[in-house]
Amino acid sequence: VLSHNLCTVLNVPHDPVALEEHFRDDDEGPVSNQGYMPYLNKFILEKVQGNFDKVEFNRMCWTLCAKKNLSKSPLLISDEDAFKVWVIFNFLSEDKYPLIIVPEEIEYLLKKLTEAMGAGWQQEQFDHYKIALNTSREGLSAWELIDLIGSGQFSKGMDRQTVSMAINEVFNELILDVLKQGYMLKKGHKRKNWTERWFVLKPNIISYYVSEDLKDKKGDIILDGNCCVEALPDKDGKKCLFLIKCLDKSFEISASDKKKKQEWIQAIQTTVNLLRAGSPPPHKEARQKRKELRQKLLAEQEELERQMKELQTANENKQKELETVRKQLEAAAARAAEEEKKRLQTQVELQDRFSLELEREKMVRQKMEEQVAQKSSELEQYLQRVRELEEMYKQLQEALEDEKQARQDEETVRKLQARLLEEESAKRAELEKWHLQQQQTIQMTEAEKQELENQRMIKEQALQVAMQQLEQLELERKEALEQYEEVKKKLETAANNTKSWKDKVAHHEGLIRLIEPGSKNPHLITNWGPAAFTEAELEQRQKSWKGKKGTSE
């Protein structure tokens, strides 16, 4: 029955013969040496194509395990809400068995629920809960998470309906990939009338229904990277309009207000951008980033633990070396004590012998006393050396502690020096760059200054030449004026002479006459302009002059 139901939910053809063949060696069925998991993997899960209803599959798995594991204590959430929390747990849990949800994901889920309920997030309360949780375990199981949400510990002051609506909203976003939903007006393609529909935006499709219960579906808007959305001006009495353009169709939508219009346009545009980039939905991408961050932190923690172990091992080695030195010092002290004991015994024997032979060997006794004094001095020096070694041992222990502290301080200073060196190198490079730019600017300025100086010298030379030319021109002008005055005087003299001559000619020869209209014949041109008589008249007058001249002769 289980296999048949699994095949039905996963859209996989059921093969009862394969089931019978798999368990033919044992009449007890799945409780066989082969087990049920190999059959499930080979004959059911390997044939799944992905075209099945995941909610129905989750509901079937919930039916199998809820009755046995769900807490019997009364909860503030319904069984349906508990099922949705269970599905969300499967989405947020770690990818290892037994499945648990870590505190970071619990905080993410509780924040989403609190935000959906419109309440404020109590970070301090969750921190206390997180501390108590970390001391006992790594995370929560699905049933412990249901108990936590159902107990109302983080939803105090909220009624069952508000909590249920919040769970449903988070379930739609994380499990059903609902990015946005709500009522809007849609313009029909045939009748061109406006009808209110419940729109549901998912990563690659917009579905619209008669109402929010999602029972009567009216159509879909398939989204891809070629789609676009743009705002439209108000028309036909409709406001807050926008247009969704696809390859085959365009859809005119009217939102309830400008805020809803902008939210829908932004949500649809974000979805299209994700499709173009081939990126997953935002909540799945955020979950993957949180998981990668946890793995990175775990790796860093393991590396830190490894370094701590290495330091501990090095410390243990140092302790062993110090213990060896201490044992050597103790052995040296024991040898010194043994030598001292032997020395004292020898001294007693010598004193007994010297007391019997004191008189006979007085010189020998003095020598022996000198030797004893020398030995005593050596012993005192040896004991002093032992005390110095013990003091040295204590100083070595203190030095070891100081060395450990110094290494830590040295590491801190080294990091600080490295950072300061990096900053100094960056500043030095920047200063060198500025210095080079200044040098280049100075060189360019010097070159421009030299060029301007050359131009100034050339212009001064040209000015001097021009002044000389101007002085020469002034002299020439003065000479020309003098010549002009002389010519003017000559012209006045010539004009006076000409006037007197004309008067004489006019008086003696009768050249003066009244100006009359000229003839149509061409006029003669003289030095003073058009003549006062024609050529014929001139010939007649010449003849007359010649006749008079001949008569007078």
TrEMBL record:
Task of the protein: Phosphatidylinositol 3,4,5-trisphosphate-dependent guanine nucleotide exchange factor (GEF) which, independently of RAS, transduces signals from tyrosine kinase receptors to RAC. It also mediates signaling of membrane ruffling. Regulates the actin cytoskeleton as an effector or adapter protein in response to agonist stimulated phosphatidylinositol (3,4)-bisphosphate production and cell protrusion.
Protein name per UniProt: Switch-associated protein 70
Keywords, alphabetical: Cell membrane, Cell projection, Coiled coil, Cytoplasm, DNA-binding, Membrane, Nucleus, Phosphoprotein
Compartments, as annotated in UniProt: Cell membrane; Cell projection, Lamellipodium; Cytoplasm; Nucleus
Subunit (UniProt): The SWAP complex consists of NPM1, NCL, PARP1 and SWAP70.
Primary localisation category: membrane
Organism expressing this protein natively: Charadrius vociferus (Killdeer)
SUPFAM superfamilies, per the entry: PH domain-like
